[in-house]
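testing teh design pipeline on a random one, pls ignore if ur not involved
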């Protein structure tokens, strides 16, 4: 278990019907955040399960 799944109520996993705050990157890995400062790498953002 981890902290998010311990909260229950659909928290801690990505699945239909679960709440979600996600930030998807347009990069091969999160490491690119450190090596490409100032470069916009955001692909998509979801807040409360809705894409914004």
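output:
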């Amino acid at each position: 278990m981890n902290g998010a799944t311990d909260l229950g109520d659909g928290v801690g996993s990505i699945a239909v019907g679960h709440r979600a705050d996600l930030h998807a990157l347009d990069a091969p890995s999160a490491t690119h955040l450190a090596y490409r400062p100032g470069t916009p790498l955001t692909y998509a953002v979801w807040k409360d399960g809705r894409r914004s």
